[in-house]
Amino acid sequence: MHKFVTAVALVSLSLVGCAKVDETINRFQRDWDASPKTVTLYSIQGEIVKTYDIGRSKVTRAEVGGDYIYFYANGKYVQTNLPYVVESK
User: Fold this and answer.
1) What's residue 71's pLDDT?
2) Rounded distance, CA 11 to CA 68, Å?
3) Residue 88 in 3-state DSSP?
4) I want to staple 49 with a disulfide (CB 3.0 to 4.6 A). Which of 33, 41, 44, 89 is the partner?
């Protein structure tokens, strides 16, 4: 049992500096204690087009540098390429 605990401790310590592990831990923390969010979409002129309360859902960019974002609001899939602001409540 002592060898097992030592092995787990060594593996854990060796992974602490790994960027992938750091990102996974950060994402888990964000998902675990995510606060309710509001997404506000704006027109090109800067006027508010629509506001969505998305609860604890997340806003996802299509890909790195992608042209659009998507999220779920009230059970509906929303995809847009409009300028947006995400606010935590």
Assistant:
1) 93
2) 39
3) strand
4) 41
